[in-house]
């Protein structure tokens, strides 16, 4: 059911430093920062030929990445995002298979203006999974 890998997300303690690493050291094309208050993060996208890397920084008080950064103070891989054609059908399939959908199960609009959902890491090999409808 899942399609392409849309992006790998890396939580970082300092977005400007992360941008510097990817733009200067690795020579990648990096987007302008975007604040997503509804998701509690500030984000940039590193555009690679075959996928994207999302760098995430804490935004606001209740950022969902704050506990992760407490455990991983220098940053780390936070989630992977797979594309699906129909997010509601995908969600219903996940629930039928016994997987837990986070945040009440209603899709939110993600960084690309498309609906996204997150799935519980304990149900997916210890990795937080984002589904994005494309
Ligand atoms: Co993401």
Explain what you see.
There is one protein chain. This protein is of the alpha+beta class and 134 residues long. It has one domain: 2,3-Dihydroxybiphenyl 1,2-Dioxygenase, domain 1 (Roll), CATH 3.10.180.10. It is built from three helices and nine strands; from the N terminus they run E-H-E-E-E-E-H-E-H-E-E-E. Strands 1, 2, 3, 4, 5, 6, 7, 8 and 9 form a nine-stranded mixed beta sheet that branches. A hairpin with a 4-residue loop joins strand 3 and strand 4 (41-47). It is globular and about 45 Å long. The two termini are 13 Å apart. 28% of the residues are buried. The site of cobalt (II) ion (CO) has 6 residues, from strand 1 and strand 6.
Which bin fits the share of residues in helices?
A: 10-25%
In round numbers, the mean pLDDT is 96
Largest sheet: 9 strands, mixed
CATH architecture: Roll
What compounds sit in this structure? cobalt (II) ion
Question: So what's the CATH class?
Answer: Alpha Beta
The shape, in one word, is: globular
Query: What Rg is obtained from the alpha carbons, in whole angstroms?
Result: 15 Å
Q: What are the low-pLDDT stretches, counting only 5+ consecutive residues below 50?
A: none
- DSSP summary, beta strand count: 9
């Amino acid at each position: 059911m899942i399609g392409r890998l849309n992006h790998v997300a890396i939580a970082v303690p300092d977005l400007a430093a992360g941008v510097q690493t990817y733009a200067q050291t690795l020579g990648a094309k990096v987007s302008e920062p975007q604040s997503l208050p509804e998701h509690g993060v500030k984000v940039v996208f590193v555009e690679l030929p075959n996928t994207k890397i999302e760098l995430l920084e804490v935004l606001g008080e209740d950022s969902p990445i704050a506990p992760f950064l407490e455990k991983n103070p220098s940053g780390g891989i936070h989630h992977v995002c797979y594309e699906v054609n129909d997010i509601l059908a995908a969600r219903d399939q996940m629930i039928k298979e016994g997987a837990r959908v986070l945040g009440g199960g209603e899709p939110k609009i993600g960084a690309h203006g498309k609906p996204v959902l997150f799935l519980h890491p304990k149900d997916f090999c210890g990795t937080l999974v984002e589904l994005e409808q494309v």
